[in-house]
Amino acid sequence: MNGIIGAVLFLILAPIAGGLIAGIDRKLTARMQGRVGPPLLQPFYDVGKLFEKENVVVVTAQNFYVVAYLVFIALSGALFFAGGDLLLIVFAFTLAHVFLVLGAYAVHSPYSHIGAERELIQVMAYEPMIILAAVGLYMVSGSFYVADIAATTAPAILYLPGVFLGLAVILTIKLRKSPFDISTSHHAHQEIVKGITTEFSGSTLGQIEIAHWYENVFLLGLVYLFFAWNPVIGVVAVAVTYVAEVFIDNVTARVRWQAALKSGWLAALLGIANLAILSYMMIGGA
Amino acid sequence: MAFLKRSPWILHYDASSCNGCDIEVLACLTPLYDVERFGIINTGNPKHADILLITGGINELNRAVVRNLYEQMPEPKVVIAIGACAATGGIFRECYNIVGGIDKVIPVDVYVPGCPARPEQIIDGVVAALGILEEKREKMAGGAQMKEEARHAEEAGEST
């Protein structure tokens, strides 16, 4: 029963929370650059506007894929907040991005295709690490179920510092922040126009934006799991992680895709090293 | 709801300007003027843009590009011609290759004079354009509603 309530709350509240987080993000970024910045509710104005605009469709399939992307992102987040199986969540999450890539490939635009290719590279870069994070949380709590992991009394972060650092690296990829904002970025329009979202406009772009809000809330939830033994520390850690991501976004330049891929896999190596030491200690202790 | 006025995304194109006005357009985005305060984002994609900021007098080579950019922008949209060249061709007016003003190729909604136009003037022009953008949105919504009603009337007529 708790699970269903969690899922429903996520589906209703996550877009609101995600939009507010995006607003805080933009305000914070502006302050770091010595600007006043847009109002806190700016992301909501943007999405509201996108739904007022004409929806230019090149190929009808593209909008279908974006709906699938939104549905699967929302599904993986809902499963997460319902306390579901972390592995299933990771796979649903990956499938969602495959739909986005397919949507971008459905259109015959070179910029859209470059964005789609780079998105695939990003998926390759973060996928090993995100699965290792699930495995690490399993090793500490003895369960793949989010509900059990959240209820565990062991401080996961103390067992999994390497996994957490690795997750922080791929979090930069997932939040579409510099230096890994290679598939789409507001700042990259000289090279790839808008990358993967180039050919989406109006309400379809609005749906991508809402999916991104869902995604961000889900990812911050994943960060929280590492600190779940103490909710206060958990919330503070999530906030600190996010501010750190915004800071990194502002002090780094976009890297090439090779560097993004290497960074993602180096992060995974760090995670594997962490898990190896942990399993050695566990066997030694037993 | 009028979200459009709170979130105008801009496409900036240099249609053979001397780059003077372009520097001033970009100056609007710097911390000094910070147009993101008004939700303005400089997007490089016509399909995401609401306002086309265009400088220069257009030459024979980029005439088709300007036309294409304009047509790729989803409705409602406005065009702001920035600087003397964008308005009339300016000092390049007599050149053999200059078309002589943005409005020779696409409809212009706001003219911002100056050589180069100052950032304050450009922001003024964008604010004026927001009013026009809102008007166009209402017209578009009204048009869609009229179409819908006409369709319903037609269906009702067919069924009787």
Automatic annotation (TrEMBL), chain B:
Protein name: NADH-quinone oxidoreductase subunit B family protein
GO molecular function annotations of the record: 4 iron, 4 sulfur cluster binding; metal ion binding
Alphabetized Pfam families for the sequence: Oxidored_q6
Organism: Methanoculleus bourgensis
Highest taxon in the source lineage: Archaea
UniProt xrefs under InterPro entries: Complex_I_20kDa-like, NADH_UbQ_OxRdtase-like_20kDa
Named cofactor requirement(s): [4Fe-4S] cluster
Keyword check for Metal-binding: yes
Keywords: 4Fe-4S, Iron, Iron-sulfur, Metal-binding
